[in-house]
Amino acid sequence: QVQLVQSGAEVKKPGASVKVSCKASGYTFTSYGISWVRQAPGQGLEWMGWISAYNGNTNYAQKLQGRVTMTTDTSTSTAYMELRSLRSDDTAVYYCARVPYGEPINFDYWGQGTLVTVSS
Amino acid sequence: QSALTQPASVSGSPGQSITISCTGTSSDVGGYNYVSWYQQHPGKAPKLMIYDVSNRPSGVSNRFSGSKSGNTASLTISGLQAEDEADYYCSSYTSSSTLHVVFGGGTKLTVL
């Protein structure tokens, strides 16, 4: 069965970086993209960007351009999301989600979420 | 504020039907047949309920249906059940230069 398993919770200081992993199983990793979505405490969902697991092409939300990098490791079927220069308003649960090619918002399977807390 | 507008809350009694609206613009909801709906229970990851406006993924109850008219998409849940109580988010592809995907602010469904 399709599974996306994310890395554990992180606590970071303002200005630091965080890298969240998302290990996929149960399907051919390179046949789908991965999107990252975050959710601040008590708030709604926010799309962060997308990466093709086939060729590494990316699309990022403009507000995060320059601070976010999404990568994949096809040898381990793992996607990564790195966010730099962390601020308190980056505190959120970060989700990875599988995305069929040609279906840009069809997030059909989700990881369990990773809580990132930014605090001094 | 969110790019797509949803009511903050809706409620209904078991067995009734409810509809949640999702209003955008011609640059997102009205311009593409890429509207999805997600259900989220507290402390859980979202779950895809509807994609491409009106398609249900395998395993999703046929009590859930989606539609679109102009710049407004809708999710209808018929035969309300207690386990339907959750937050619901709509999502759309957008031609905006700053985003490719936009979400609604979410709607809290209460089953009375």
Instruction: Give unreliable regions of chain B as ranges.
Output: none
Q: Give the CA-based shape of chain A.
A: globular
Q: Write down the secondary-structure element order of chain B.
A: EEEEEEEEE
DSSP strand tally of chain A? 11
**In angstroms, what is the radius of gyration of chain B?**
13 Å
Return the average pLDDT of chain B rounded to an integer.
95
Q: Oligomeric status of the shown chains?
A: heterodimer
Helix content of chain B: under 10%
* Spatial shape of chain B: globular
Radius of gyration of chain A in whole Å, from Cα? 13 Å
Question: Mind explaining what this structure looks like?
Answer:
The complex is a heterodimer of chains A (120) and B (112). Chain A starts with a strand and ends with a strand. Chain A has strands at 3-6, 10-12, 18-25, 32-39, 45-52, 58-60, 68-73, 78-83, 92-100, 109-110, 114-118. Chain A contains no helices and 11 strands. In chain A, the strands form 2 sheets. In chain A, strands 2, 4, 5, 6, 9, 10 and 11 form a 7-stranded mixed sheet that branches. Chain A has a 4-stranded antiparallel sheet with strand order 1-3-8-7, with no helix packed on it. Chain A is an all-beta fold. Helix content of chain A is 0%, strand content 52%. With 112 residues, chain B is mainly beta. Chain B has no helices and 9 strands. Chain B has strands at residues 9-12, 18-23, 35-40, 47-50, 64-69, 72-77, 86-93, 101-103, 107-111. In chain B, strands 1, 3, 4, 7, 8 and 9 form a 6-stranded mixed sheet that branches. A 3-stranded antiparallel sheet of chain B has the order 2-6-5, with no helix packed on it. At the A-B interface, strand 5 of A face strand 3, strand 7 and strand 8 of B.
